[in-house]
């Protein structure tokens, strides 16, 4: 019936694997790790102010 190479049973079994199998915690773990990495990069970029390290003018 379907012109594509995937059958509806393969699609539903793959969907069950994604939703109820071990793939969903792995994807959530990947998303959490990427979020923590992005937060760390953002903090490191915002805290690296080289203006604070420059010598102050003598008055």
UniProtKB/TrEMBL annotation:
Residues that span the membrane, as ranges: 23-44
Taxonomic placement: Eukaryota, Metazoa, Chordata, Craniata, Vertebrata
InterPro entries according to UniProt: TOMM6 (IPR029182)
One cellular component (GO) term of this entry: mitochondrial outer membrane translocase complex
Keywords: Membrane, Transmembrane, Transmembrane helix
Stated name of the protein: Uncharacterized protein
Pfam families, sorted: TOM6p
